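Example record used in the benchmark description.
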Amino acid sequence: MKKIISIIILFSLVITCTACNIFSRNTHSNQTGNSAATPISSNIKQDTEQTSSEWTEYSQDSISYKVDSSWVPFSDEEGVFITTDQKTVYMVQGISPLGSYTPDEFYQSLINRYTSQYNLIYLDASLSYFTADDNTDCAMATMKLEENDVYYLIDLIIAKDKNIVVTFASQCASDDDARLEPIHSVSQSITYNIGNTDYISGNTFINTDGSELCLNSDGTFNYYRYEGDHENQYYTGTYEVYYGQPAIDKIASMTEYGLTKEELEDTLSANMKGYIPGNNTLDYLYSDSSTEYYQVCKDTFYCLILHHEELVNSPDDRSPLSHSTLYFGFYIPELQMADMLNANSATQFQFTLKTNTPSPKK
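Model output (structure tokens):
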């Protein structure tokens, strides 16, 4: 048991999952591991069907995953499990943003780090790809190493559109694949709790200027000048909402705004290291250590189009309209807020969620 505890303590200091600092602990490697020509992880999806009759799902930060129900959660360490014979440990080793790296760039940096510092037994030469059960496209690689007579099998999972890197690991005191390889089933059960739903359609938001935007579930909207005043000074019309890649495609197709897919992808990349609501993408260069950043990803990038059909100044004063307004930006789940740019006026808007919009009265 003492050896298992020492392993856990050792791994409480493990990866922050940045390309420049994959492991934070100090170790000494005495040889370089061998890389295989064909990634072993490319066959994992087919070869590691969960055979246990009972699996328990856990949620941690922005992911969910399943583990064998016979594994025992270890003390207060989130995401760490131990077998009942106390000989094998399974864990979520690290969760962090991918940042502005591509998956291949990140993995190459990891390879350089591992081959220079660890006694590698096996390392995938390249990433393989699979689709998670929530239809998220993932890149994956597997590596195996030995250190101080302890063996580790590590799965690296990268979801670019979620801006998330996750490592799962198993470890035991013997080179026993039967004990180490169940971590593959855990890795392959991953789903994501960010950017997997439409946070905007059908909801009511309050803007920082006190206006109230009601997006009805039937695709119509009412945009009131003042929160709570639903009789005077408001716009009506229909709306469209897109998020993720469809949002980028839609904005780029609206050629009157002059925004290309490449420019939008660059905007996304600039914000992947950390997003500051209400600020431009370069503000992280000038922010101090007290600045609070939020994680965003492609799947939390939104495009909202309001098609204005009528201006209501009062119940007896209505004017027809026929123009549209494009808003785009990020929805931040922690704040329940959409931080968006009005592309028509180049004005920043922060729409904070108020409630689900009640169904319109007929």
